[in-house]
């Protein structure tokens, strides 16, 4: 019997969104609807599985954990990019790593960014809670028209923010390490220096890939340059923003924030970001759409079938043939 574990299916939709029966009667599929938060917990729960289906980067596979999964032969990660699997160790242990289609992030992530911007600007979550509690309006919002959107990153996702900002009547400025004035203008934005972006923007929205150059890119200095009551929106990756100065600024009421990503996910129960004022927080919803999930699980089944047939598809890493 081939044992398959589908991890981090928080919404409990994996078995409904794909036809796992295609795998045959000699395959068992178990779904985990919770995060295996520690390596010891993961090693104990997954030791008997041959195949792991990961949901994006929710559960890392470092070398130390891979070494504790002796039966593992195939790992499937949803999406086309992963930084949380030790590929060298996987290959050395005879494990093939495959991926699924990339998802709908080009639409979904900018849309959640705008959801956060509007929620922060008009205090929507708080006022919703007050209506449900039998109260009425208690806050005063701000409009976006005439304001300035500053984009950190103007690639596939960042550039999709521009026409929406223009529809609201906003000016758009942008910065990234390799961005040119010509490329910015083509996207409908104006290139500025990084410090000027933080000084001028009423809304700073992050659309960068996490890497050595972007880790900690937004720290106390950059946050200190922001206008009073400016908004910081992060739908990219948590570690791009240094957590401690962000929390300090929110607790002091200097800025506002809309956050979909965090250094540690899920956020620990007592984490300060669960209770800071001036922030709207969502649980990494940027890529969580029905279309994406149906594609993820459909491709996961296809990946398993292809691997069992000896012709794996969408391969990220694989042992050398004997």
From TrEMBL:
Gene Ontology MF terms in the entry: NAD binding; oxidoreductase activity, acting on the CH-OH group of donors, NAD or NADP as acceptor
Gene3D superfamilies, per database record: NAD(P)-binding Rossmann-like Domain
Record-linked PROSITE patterns: D_2_HYDROXYACID_DH_3
Presence of keyword Oxidoreductase: yes
D-isomer specific 2-hydroxyacid dehydrogenase NAD-binding domain residues: 115-286
Assigned keywords, A-Z: NAD, Oxidoreductase
Matches recorded under InterPro entries: D-2-hydroxyacid_DH, D-isomer_2_OHA_DH_cat_dom, D-isomer_DH_CS, D-isomer_DH_NAD-bd, NAD(P)-bd_dom_sf
Segments forming domain D-isomer specific 2-hydroxyacid dehydrogenase catalytic: 25-314
Family: Belongs to the D-isomer specific 2-hydroxyacid dehydrogenase family.
Protein's recorded name: 2-hydroxyacid dehydrogenase
Species this chain originates from: Agaricicola taiwanensis
Upper taxonomic lineage: Bacteria, Pseudomonadati, Pseudomonadota, Alphaproteobacteria, Rhodobacterales
């Amino acid at each position: 019997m081939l044992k398959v574990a589908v991890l981090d299916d928080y919404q409990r939709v994996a078995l409904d969104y794909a036809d796992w029966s295609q795998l045959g009667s000699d395959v068992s599929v178990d779904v985990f609807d919770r995060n295996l938060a520690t390596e010891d917990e993961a090693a104990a729960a997954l030791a008997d599985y041959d195949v792991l289906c990961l949901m994006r980067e929710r559960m890392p596979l470092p070398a130390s954990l891979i070494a504790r999964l002796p039966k593992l032969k195939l790992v499937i990660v949803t999406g086309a990019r992963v930084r949380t699997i030790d590929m060298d160790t996987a290959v050395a242990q005879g494990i093939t790593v495959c991926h699924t289609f990339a998802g709908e992030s080009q639409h979904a992530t900018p849309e959640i960014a705008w959801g956060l911007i509007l929620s922060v600007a008009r205090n929507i979550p708080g006022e919703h809670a007050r209506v449900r509690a039998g109260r009425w309006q208690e806050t005063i919002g701000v409009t976006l028209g005439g304001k300035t959107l500053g984009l950190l990153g103007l690639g596939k996702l960042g550039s999709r923010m521009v026409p929406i900002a223009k529809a609201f009547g906003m000016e758009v400025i942008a910065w990234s390490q390799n961005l040119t004035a010509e490329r910015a203008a083509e996207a409908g934005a104006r290139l500025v220096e990084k410090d000027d972006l933080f000084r001028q923007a009423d809304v700073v929205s992050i659309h960068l890939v996490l890497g050595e150059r972007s880790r900690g890119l937004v720290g106390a200095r950059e946050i200190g340059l922001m206008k009073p009551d400016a908004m910081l929106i992060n739908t990219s990756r948590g570690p791009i923003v240094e957590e401690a100065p962000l929390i300090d600024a929110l607790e002091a009421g200097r800025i506002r924030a809309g956050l979909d990503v965090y250094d540690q996910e899920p956020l620990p129960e007592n984490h300060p970001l669960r209770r800071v004022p001036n922030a709207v927080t969502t649980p990494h919803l940027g890529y969580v759409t029905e279309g994406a999930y149906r594609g993820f699980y459909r491709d996961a089944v296809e990946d398993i079938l292809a691997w069992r047939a000896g012709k794996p598809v969408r391969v990220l890493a694989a042992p050398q043939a004997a």
